[in-house]
Here is the input.
Amino acid sequence: MAAEHTACFRVQCRVVRRIPRYLMLSDMIQARDQEKAQGKLVVVSGPSGAGKSTICREVARRLDNAFLSVSVTTRPIGPGEENGREYWFLSREEFHKCIENGTLLEYAEVFGNLYGTPKDKTDEALLAGKIVILEIDIQGGKQVRALYPRAVMVFILPPSAKVLAQRLGHRGRETAEAAARRLGGAGAEIATAWQYYDNMVINDELEQAITEVIQIIEHAPGIGDT
Ligand code: 5GP
Here is the structure.
C-alpha cells in the first residue's frame, strides 16, 4: 500500500515537473481555449477612495455565477482585514517567488507595495463560464487587456476631487501622508484611464453605480465570443 502511494506520488511529480499546472491552465486559456471559455473577465479600477471595493463586493454578491478574485500583496495587513479574504498577504520574497514561477496573471507596484492576481483561480473560473471580477490598479488593467482583448474594462470615478479627498480622509485606514499620496496619484490615473477603459462609472450615488456596473457586465461579451 505504502509502495503504491509512493509510486503514485512519483508519477504525479513527474507529470507536474513536465507540465506545471499553472502553465497548462494559462496555455489553455491564452492559446486554443480562449475562444472556448464562456466566462467574462471584468477589470474594475479607479483611484483609492472612489469606492471600487464596495462596488465590486456588491456586484459579485448580486450576480449569479460571479467570482471576485483575491489578490496577493506585500502590503501589511490592515485593521479588520483577514488573510485570504481581502488579500493573501505575502512577504516580498514570497511574492517574487510567485513572479518567478509564473503564477500571476498580472502584477504591479502600487504606492510602494506589490499586488498581483493569481492566475490559476482566474483561469479555472473562466473555463467554468463564471464572471471573474478583478479589482486591480490601472497598470494591472493594461496587462490584462493585452492578454484578454475581450476583458470588460470598468473605471470608477469619484464625483469630484473634493469628494475623493473627503472619502480618503474619512476612511482612516492609512496615515494622512499615505492618504495624500493616494490622492496625488488620482489625477494622472484618471487621465490614463481614458485610453484603456471603455466604461467610466461615476460613483456619486452608490446604488446607481452598482446598477450601472451590473448592466455593463450583463451586456458585455464573454472572453470567447467573436
Ligand atoms: P489597497 O491597498 O488600498 O487595498 O489597494 C491599493 C491599490 O492596489 C488599489 O488601486 C487596488 O485596486 C490595487 N490592487 C489590488 N489588488 C491588485 C492586483 O492584484 N493587481 C494590481 N495590479 N493592483 C491591485
Summary: Residues 3-69+129-219 form a domain with the Rossmann fold fold (CATH 3.40.50.300).
